[in-house]
Amino acid sequence: MLKDLKPYPVTFAYLISASRGDAKRLTRLLKALYHPGNYYLIHVDSDAPEKEHREIAEFVSSDPVFGLVGNVWIVGKPNLVTYRGPTMLATTLHAMAILLRTCKWDWFINLSASDYPLVTQDGSAWTILSRSFAEYSIVGWDNLPRTLLLYYANFVSSPEGYFQTVICNSEDYKNTTVNHDLHYITWDTPPKQHPRSLGVKDYRRMILSSRPFARKFKRNDPVLDKIDRELLKRYKGQFAHGGWCARSGKRHGTCSGFQNGNYGVLRPGPGSRRLQNLLTKLLPEKNFKRQCR
């Protein structure tokens, strides 16, 4: 592991959840999302076939960059996750506890295998939580998180309300939230249980939304190739381009592996300006005091 090298200014810890049939989609997402300054914990539903568990484990263990940096892990004893009940929430809390024990990071981001990034990682029921709030959710020094966890255990879809309820009922955190999950999502009319799958016809609207993530996508949809090519500057089977893998100072090009001496180098991609504009609108101080109502 590259423990002694210069750290990045902000570090993200990702939980990436996958279920039966998601192996190819997960490996593609991880390549598109990967950055040596972040951490990645993969949870593959226990209902997935043993072959898929083995395929994902072999993908992680055989990649030389993952082995060198040592920042990609797989949950050893996965849960059986369903959209109804508390299993998804329990998996998220378990992952947060693992990441808090394992590494130092600033923000926790929860994604599924059907998500995809719209910006490169240089400069840039789905939540983004601070490390401090993640610790509070696990330790719960005033017992509020545990009390609400027991309450939400009886809800049909507890992940959609648990963290929001905890943060808005905590005196320490209620004025630190922004009511926005930074995903581009569209729904059918009338809405169905799951969001509408995105395609090429949604591409322009995704960009104009300025969001860093979008969901959900069908496996190998052509729009993913378009995102790779035009937004992430990513070639098939390689990582999304960033300063950490740049060759000879080139801004764009192949990104197949770690370049010695480039750890700590940031080269924001074209999406960084869009994301900056969105965050500028979301983060004025006056907004924080009117989110929990």
From TrEMBL:
<dbReference type="Pfam" id="PF02485">
    <property type="entry name" value="Branch"/>
</dbReference>
<keyword id="KW-0472">Membrane</keyword>
<dbReference type="GO" id="GO:0015020">
    <property type="term" value="F:glucuronosyltransferase activity"/>
</dbReference>
<keyword id="KW-0328">Glycosyltransferase</keyword>
<keyword id="KW-0808">Transferase</keyword>
<dbReference type="InterPro" id="IPR003406">
    <property type="entry name" value="Glyco_trans_14"/>
</dbReference>
<keyword id="KW-0325">Glycoprotein</keyword>
<dbReference type="InterPro" id="IPR044610">
    <property type="entry name" value="GLCAT14A/B/C"/>
</dbReference>
<protein>
    <submittedName>
        <fullName>Uncharacterized protein</fullName>
    </submittedName>
</protein>
<dbReference type="GO" id="GO:0016020">
    <property type="term" value="C:membrane"/>
</dbReference>
